[in-house]
Write a structure and sequence with these properties.
This protein is mainly α. It is 84% helix and 0% strand.
Length: 126
């Protein structure tokens, strides 16, 4: 996963656990793509202080992820949903291409059982 996307998602999941100052600096750094020099000027601190705050905040968010695993669950659920979507598209394609209805119905039944099982895993997981 792209580092910037990961930081963005970590903030989405755990940002409310940060102080207001941490939120402001992190948002400016990650979402507004401000450099450490720009952060230092904006928040009236040294470049090193801006760097340290962003680094500490990132570590804090990553520690929340290690403990709670919400981002990991989200990524896995999204992957399963993409797999389910692909299975459904395969079923639709099979319907259009097959003349043998009995064979088609058996194939659709197998795929629907697999889709149902994966959907249940997603709900159990969340």
């Amino acid at each position: 996963m792209d580092e910037r996307l990961k930081k963005s998602l970590l903030y989405d999941f755990y940002g409310e656990l940060l102080s207001e100052h941490q939120k402001e600096v992190y948002i400016a750094s990650v979402f507004d793509d401000m450099s450490y020099s720009e952060l230092a000027e904006e928040f009236d601190c040294s470049r090193q202080a801006a760097f340290d705050l962003v680094r500490r905040t990132t570590v804090k968010l990553e520690n929340y992820e290690k403990k709670l695993g919400l981002l990991k669950r989200f990524v896995e659920a999204r992957s399963k949903l993409e797999s389910l979507t692909s299975e459904i598209e395969d079923i639709r394609a099979s319907v259009k291409e097959t003349d043998d209805i009995d064979k088609l119905l058996k194939e659709i039944d197998k795929k629907l059982l697999r889709v149902s099982g994966e959907a249940q895993e997603i709900f159990d997981f969340l």
